[in-house]
Amino acid sequence: MSHHIKQLQVLSPPTPSSSSSSSSSSRPPSFLSLSLCLQEAMRRTVPALLFFAFASLFLFAPFFSLHLSRTTQLIQHFPISIDNINYAIFHDDNNNPQLPATHRALHVSSIINNHSAISTVSILFPAWELLLVVSPDTPISADDTYVCLFQNNDTSPVRFSKTLPFSNRTTLTCPMPERVKHLRPFYQPVLARSSEKDARAPGPGSPEPIRWNFLVYESFSTENDVVVFVKGLNHRQGVNRPPSDFKCVFGDSDKKSVKTAVTSSTQEVFRCQHPNLTELEDTFYYNEQQQQERRRQDVTKFKISLEIVDGDVVVPSVAYYTRPRLRTRLTTTQTTSSKPDPDHDVCACTMVYNVAKFLREWVIYHSKIGVDYFILYDNDSDDNLESVVLGLRQEGYNITTLFWVWPKTQEAGFSHSAIYAKHLCKWVLYIDVDEFVFAPYSWAHSAQPSKHMIKSLLPKHSNRRNNNKNVAVGQVSLKCNDFGPSNRKTHPAEGVTQGYTCRRRFEQRHKSMVLLDAVDYSLLNMIHHFEMKKGYRSRKLSMVEGVVNHYKYQAWPEFRTKFRRRVSAYVVDWTQALNPKSKDRTPGLGFEPVEPKGWADMFCEVRDERLKMLTQRWFGSPTSNNGGYRMLWQT
Question: What is the total count of domains within the chain?
Answer without folding.
Answer: 3
